[in-house]
Amino acid sequence: MSILAEEQIERFFNVLNQSSEIIQKSKDQSYLDSLIEVLDTVQSGDVQALNLAKADTTAVSDIYATFNRDDYDSEVLRKAIQMAVLKAIKVDKIQANYQITPDTIANVVGYLIAGIFNGHRQLSLLDPAMGTGNLLTAVANQLSNSIGVKLSVSGIENDDAMFELAASSFELQHIHAELFHEDTIQNVLAPMVDVALSDLPVGYYPIDANTKGYNTRSTTGHSYVHHLMIEFAMNHVNKGGFGFFLVPSQIFKTSEAKQLLKWMQGHVYLQGLLNLPTELFSNKASQKAIMILQNTGGGAKQAKQIMLGEFPSFKDQTAFQKFLTEIDDWQRNDLLQ
Questions:
Q1: Fold exhibited by the domain 3-93
Q2: Looking at domain 97-335, does it have CATH number 3.30.1330.30?
Q3: How many CB atoms lie within 10 A of CB 208?
Q4: Where exactly are the transmembrane stretches of this chain (predicted)?
């Protein structure tokens, strides 16, 4: 990243941070709620909508006056927003489901998608658990910049605050998207797409009645939400289309794996399972992998060889680049033949 881009990221982060801190103190509310208000108003410059005291209104107005959307590209804005959300998580001590997918992982997911869809003029994406939208916007920006594809983007999120953050982030980045503020498992009327991607929430889905009709539901007790979301997502992927999901590395070693594997047979091809570096996780049990699924139909077939492996440390650039070359070779010689 250029020095100019880094300076711009810091500059826009300061706009978000300074404004949020003023609003937080003025309204005696969380940093996150204040950031949501800032993201909602910074582009329009509508300081009056914040309903602040006169001195605070003047202070925020002066900060907003330093921001001109046309001076920034989408990636700069995304990274600054990401920094502000990370600060909100730290300041407000927010629970783990607000954690943002690291850019290193988002870049790998984007790289995988770009390799498979290089040469396509149009591509549609869906994230069934988009959170604050960081993974979806990071990949969208990467695909636009790397393979110049025209994108159609959709995302689903049930959490109020995360949905508002995502919606404002998309708007600021000028990424047109169809966003659904709903519970994915209640079968949202989402569009059919070429690619589903998501950093899936892990754990049990609490409302058993909503899982009726899902093949991956548990026969006893609550069902795994990540299994349900994989099924939902792939049901919204076109024939021959792909799904890229961040899942627990041990996804096939749990007692619930039987239902997932049973559903997969005849519905999707497991084309790859790539463990992410252990250094990114607090322990082996929390390690995640990128699962690559492909829907049947549309000329799709099981790859000659399933891509299995573990990414080397992202810090070891030589080994990392070598692994990416191996992925390129696999896509060319095994997956897309």
A1: DNA polymerase; domain 1 (1.10.150)
A2: no
A3: 13
A4: none
